[in-house]
Amino acid sequence: MNVVTNFKWIEAANYDEMSKIAATIFIDHLKKNSETVLGLATGGTPEGFYKELVAAYKAGEVSFAQAKSFNLDEYVGIDPANESSYHYYMDHHLFNHVDMKRDNINLPAGIQSNLEKAAAEYEAMIKAAGNIDIQLLGIGGNGHIGFNEPGTPFDVGTHIIELAQSTREANKVYFDSIEDVPTHAITMGIKTILSSKKIVLLIAGASKQEAFDRLRSRIVTEDFPASALHNHPDVTVIYTDVK
Ligand code: PGA
After folding, report:
1. Does 201 map to a domain?
2. 5 in a domain, yes or no?
3. Ligand 1 centroid, distance to 92 Cα (angstroms)
4. How do beta strands 105-106 and 198-204 pair?
5. Which neighbouring-strand residues pair with 187?
6. Structural domain span for residue 218
């Protein structure tokens, strides 16, 4: 298939290669600027990416001591200590294993009494940090980025969102049952994501084929949130097991 957008498309031979290519981009960035503001994602797709980052840190190739991070999203109503929370995921896959300073780690809080206020504060913190230098993204089968579900306006910052039923179904493997999957999340908005200086999007596996095809079509529509990325000047898509 021909290149259809300004994106840089990189086809990886397999999942491990995709993870390595993405990790190398982030590591190179950190080597050039130790104070990089990282935008981080959760989910099944980036697990290999985090393994690579931890391995590089343990091998002495990279340090996170001066870096800052902001995660894309968190479930509403899930305690950070809960194994299904994205706070827990990040500790487990990255933060417990590298030299990031706890004060430099930021995730949206899903258990605040005033979530709208927490969302506005999170957005302000990202701006105060000078915006994200390099943002990692996965993609939902329905095209969501972060938890911006289809229909989300492109011009909103961090906000509370109702999860699509298909998202709750896709994520129920991380919970005891579908009833336990939260109905809402707090997420960076598409506006927040587009304010990042560089974006790296990972797409892996047959369940993402339709999303991959829609992204390739280059049609920009709020019905397909990832299509907003066509409005960004520096997006690298690393994909595997989709055609
Ligand atoms: P996944 O989720 O990596 O677990 O497939 C990606 C997403 O929903 O953004």
Report:
1. no
2. no
3. 17
4. unpaired
5. 73, 159
6. 16-193+209-240
